[in-house]
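Re: export button greyed out
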Amino acid sequence: MRPYLRQTWALTRRYLTQMEPAFIFISLVQPIIWLLLFGALFKEVVKIPGFGGDSYITFLTPGVVVMTALFSAGWSGMSFIDDMDSGVMGRMLVSPVHRGAMMASTLVYQALTTVVQSIIIVLLGWALGAKFPSGVPGVAMLVLGAVLIAVAFAALSNGLSLVTRTRETLIAAATALVLPLSFLSYAFMQANLVPGWIAGIARYNPVNWAVEAGRSALAVQVHWGTVGSYVLFLLASVVVAGVLATRAFRSYQRSI
Amino acid sequence: MRAEPAIEAIDLVKTYKGEVTALAGLSFDVEPGTVFGLLGPNGAGKSTTVKILTTLSAPDSGTALVGGVDVVQHPERVRRLIGAVAQESGSIAALTGRQNLRLQGDLQGMPTQELSRRSAQLLDTFGLTDAADRTVKTYSGGMRRRLDIAIALVHQPEVLFLDEPTTGLDPEARADTWRALNELAARQQLTILLTTHYLEEADQFASRLAIIDRGQIVAEGAPDELKAALRGDSVVVEMGDSRGAGMGERALLQLTDVGSVALDGTALRARVPDGARLLPSMLAALDGAGLRVESVAVSRPTLDDVYLHFAGRSFHSAQEVAA
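Workaround output, generated via the alternate export path:
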């Protein structure tokens, strides 16, 4: 176990070292636009009968946190593609490195960046007037939900990169998934106001589980049982994505 | 007593899906502590051989042992015994030289103190101490290649694989890498498998070499042995024009000691047992035919000649077919 942990940490540190500070900044531009634009555009939707709550920015912030986590996780596989192109992947594979450590380190890195991004977005939302009645525990639960969906999505992105091995396909697949998955959830609209077919899909959409886990944990009255069950569903999706990504690794190795 | 071979390849066969056979029953041994050269044109099967020996790829059939360990049965054990430098650089451009070495040592599970001592020593050996804390992106081609070699050596492997280490480098970087290779070849406890399509590289560094063509070994031995197998020297006579060369060919073929004469543009290439002794009679024969000679050169056979002899085609034409 110890070599596995040391390898995972050494590779995570590698990703942290080679991280471009500019990338973090640029990745925050999008959520700022979502918060400002959607926040202003749909300011009045809270007046629709049945919406409940009194501030759209309060409603929107958890949705933007999850969507941003999803966006950056979609790029995760890019580092594998870079490594394949530069020969780093080949060098890793002829070293006694656990394949699991190679996968886990990218996911730990993704989890860490998601924590930082999510906290910044929560602070931005708060500056724009969002309220978080349940305070720190609620925000922590929102961040946990975002981390879990990010890790699951990053594992899928890694798996896809090992199968397709091209930047273009990975970018196309990630962007083709992120927006529909976000809009087929309650990220932007209250559950009882979306069309029935969307609600039907949202029930089984892991992105929605993350949004709902965060939002219910931030409510005035928190039903921790509901929050807990969403977290369990999210953990299950992480496991499924992890298994798929490991299989992709095996198929990549067989193809060399 | 002969030591157990450091590398043993027995009848390796590998066919890529839907493609031609990459390896067609390849066998060779490498003695510990030596530099073994695998020489052949692109597409001959050199890289496939290295991929199998370094556990990246599995053979369709055949056996390969590195340090006595079967690469298919126990890949994890083999990975601890080997270091490998591939054609592409394996170092991470965004990290410094020292960070790259540290990462590899961590992955190899080296004790931390030993790792920093070893890194400093390798940076010194390969002339990278001044650049150690700069990111690899700022390195020249030669520096980067030397770092790749240092990374492969960090855990003190028994066997080092160098897969075309100078391909794609500019002449300066190549000379730089050759200096590093010289330093490595002097280490007695290290076995090196060097693949190359540069004849002079194999000639200079390998104490033994195998010529590989179309997935098979066609000749094996010390470079001098292989050249000696051609028995004799090559004499090149420049005649100035092709008409003179054609007449000269007939004149030289009259001499009993001349084995073969090949016409090469305006020059004649003759193969003779002892060039220095036979040269006067060759010149006399040309003079007797009323031909003027512009220049003459006598040379020991090169690996180019060896390749032509064993693979049945010249090295450069094989290279062009592959390209």
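The interface with chain B takes residues 3, 6-7, 9-11, 13-14, 17-18, 85-88, 90-97, 253, 256 of chain A (CB under 8 Å). The button fix ships in the next patch.
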